[in-house]
């Protein structure tokens, strides 16, 4: 597909998904699911591609790049390859929890870093003409309230998205593994080992370590540079793979922006073990939260 057709299709798809046609489109996308399928759920700009690359390489035993990953681990389940035991498929979704999801890994990233990353993505070269950003939105201060209200993607507010998964039946019955992007950045081998064990796969630890080494931010950017799919579509100054930072919001958000985010998403931040606005102003408290806090599932809380 040419660059013009690709861009035109993405713009049309975005507009369609903002209308009442979204429901039948989602039904079509989710047709043909199998009870054994496992989902990787994420809100956009939460480290989706990074985790996809690592898991795909671990499960397939093959190196992957941007031009191959969608043929091995995709959101279009009709094309997905059975990488799990018994031919089960691992399928990516940005949707909130849906009853047809029987087992899933859910990756969460701090909303404050998500907001900054999504803003750069949506207003950069790759988002122009695709995402509908109202004309009056000129600054991040203009953008932030609309983002917090869930008006700039198909997937609703970040906090509603997270809570839909945390409150789901699969969270209560032990069929949901929640990972935090920040923990994955800090100790990727340990977090990926959790994921592999949750998927019931027997994998040599050396394979996990190799996948981590092959998919650092620097390696991912090299893959982006060499991609035939992405190289024409994304410009250097508006990369698809950005810094992948954890906690970078502290140096970028103003106190009023932090207060606004906390007003909308503070309870969910606390639920996920992230420092709140008050805690974020205390470096010692932040260090404790970052090093010691882990998310506990509803099932774990009742046992």
How does this model look, in words?
By secondary structure, the chain is of the alpha/beta class. Helices cover 48% and strands 6% of the residues. Strands 2-1-3-4 form a four-stranded parallel beta sheet, with helices on both faces. The radius of gyration is 19 Å and the shape is globular.
Strand order of the largest sheet: 2-1-3-4
* Shape field: globular
Topology pattern, helix = H, strand = E:
HHEHHEEHHHHEHHHHHHHH
Relative helix content: 40-55%
What is the CATH T-level topology of the largest domain?
Rossmann fold
Largest sheet: 4 strands, parallel
**Whole-Å distance between the termini?**
52 Å
Number of strands: 4
Structural class: alpha/beta
What's the name of the CATH homologous superfamily of the largest domain? P-loop containing nucleotide triphosphate hydrolases
Number of domains: 2
The CATH level-2 architecture of the largest domain is identified as 3-Layer(aba) Sandwich
Annotation field: number of helices: 16
Q: Can you identify the CATH class of the largest domain? A: Alpha Beta
Q: Which residues sit in consecutive blocks of at least 5 with pLDDT less than 50?
A: 71-75, 230-242, 284-295
**Rg:** 19 Å
Mean pLDDT: 79
Strand content: 5-15%
């Amino acid at each position: 597909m040419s660059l013009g057709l690709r861009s035109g299709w993405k713009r049309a798809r975005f507009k369609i998904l903002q209308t009442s046609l979204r429901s039948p489109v989602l039904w079509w996308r989710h047709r043909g699911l199998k009870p054994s399928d496992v989902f990787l759920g994420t809100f956009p700009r939460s480290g989706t591609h990074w985790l996809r690359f690592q898991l795909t390489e671990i499960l397939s035993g093959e190196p992957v790049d941007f031009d191959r990953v969608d043929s091995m681990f995709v959101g279009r389940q009709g094309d997905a390859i059975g990488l799990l035991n018994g031919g089960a498929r691992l399928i990516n979704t940005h949707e909130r929890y849906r009853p047809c999801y029987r087992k899933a890994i859910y990756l969460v990233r701090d909303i404050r870093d998500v907001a900054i990353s999504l803003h750069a993505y949506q207003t950069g070269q790759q988002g122009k003409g695709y995402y509908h950003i109202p004309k009056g939105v000129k600054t991040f201060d203009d953008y932030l309230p609309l983002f917090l209200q869930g008006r700039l993607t198909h997937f609703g507010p970040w906090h509603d998205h997270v809570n839909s998964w945390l409150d789901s039946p699969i969270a209560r019955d032990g069929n949901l593994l929640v990972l935090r992007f920040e923990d994955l950045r800090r100790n990727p081998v340990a977090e990926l080992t959790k994921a592999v064990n949750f998927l019931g796969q027997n994998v040599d630890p050396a394979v996990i370590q190799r996948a981590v080494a092959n998919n650092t931010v620097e390696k991912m950017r090299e893959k982006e540079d060499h991609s035939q799919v992405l190289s024409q579509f994304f410009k250097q100054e508006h990369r698809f793979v950005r810094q992948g930072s954890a906690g970078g919001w502290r140096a970028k958000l103003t106190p009023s922006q932090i207060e606004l985010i906390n007003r909308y998403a503070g309870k969910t931040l606390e639920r996920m073990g992230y420092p709140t606005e008050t805690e974020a102003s205390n470096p010692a408290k932040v260090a404790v939260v970052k090093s010691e806090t882990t998310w506990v599932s509803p099932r774990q809380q009742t046992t």
